[in-house]
Amino acid sequence: MVTIKRLPDFKKNSYEEAAWARNGVIAGVDEVGRGCLAGPVVAAAVILKPKKTHPLVKDSKLLDAAELQKAYSWIIKNSWYGTAIINNNLIDKINIYQATLTCMRRAAHQLLATAPRAPELFVVDAMPLVLGNFQGDIIHFIYGEKKSSSIAAASIVAKVTRDAIMQRHDSTFPGYNLARHKGYSTPSHKKILIESPQSLIHRVTFIDHFVDCGQEDTQESLLCL
């Protein structure tokens, strides 16, 4: 196994098309929730079935809720996938970087254990993933969702999975508007935390840093660590 960092200087789906031409498959890995003040980080690993694509399998941040559900429904019918969840307590214990890598690794291992076909390689959004039980190459690059439908599919699976978790948490922890901001570091979320104590699913190590971030009130605004 070799882990390779690459610039995103190639045509979209180059890795997919090369594998499909040989009747092979590749796996994409991505995460959602890394910059949140509350809730888990969720990762997914996805193998698209050969020559299967869809216009909505793209950067999940460009899709509205209805499009995400439509894309998710298509993906689960046209792929093999694995997911993993790391909760806020473990994030606080080992830090978000290590938690993200651990989550990606677990999702990839689940995929390798359950998929009927082994991927030729893994492509990963930004993170230098290492898999001890995989013999092929692992290639990571920025803008993964834009350059690989496999990574985009993984992002969509992870996002829909995490959004559903936060929707359920909204009724368990009322008053934090979790269904709206999904735990991200938005001004409205930070205002609530200034006025109220944190819940059991808030990340203690993150909240110490949020006051001076000043991000726009969008679901995907990132915590400035």
Detailed description of the structure:
With 225 residues, the chain is α/β, with parallel strands linked by helices. It has nine helices and six strands. The protein has helices at 14-21, 65-77, 88-94, 96-114, 144-147, 149-172, 178-181, 187-195, 204-207, and strands at 3-5, 27-32, 41-48, 79-86, 121-125, 137-141. It has a six-stranded mixed β-sheet with strand order 1-6-5-2-3-4, sandwiched between helices. Strand 2 and strand 3 (41-48) form a beta hairpin. The longest helix is centred in the last third of the chain and has 24 residues, at 149-172. The radius of gyration is 17 Å and the shape is globular. Mean pLDDT is 92; it is low at 211-225.
Helix content: 40-55%
Our count of helices gives 9
* Strand arrangement in the largest pleated sheet: 1-6-5-2-3-4
Assess the beta-strand content as a share of residues: 15-25%
Average of pLDDT: 92
Using only C-alpha atoms, the radius of gyration works out to 17 Å
Query: Would you tell me the structural class of the helices and strands?
Result: alpha/beta
Q: First CA to last CA: what distance?
A: 32 Å
Query: Shape, please?
Result: globular
Given as residue ranges, the uncertain stretches (5+ residues, pLDDT < 50) are 211-225
**Strand segment tally:** 6
Largest sheet: 6 strands, mixed
Order of helices and strands: EHEEHEHHEEHHHHH
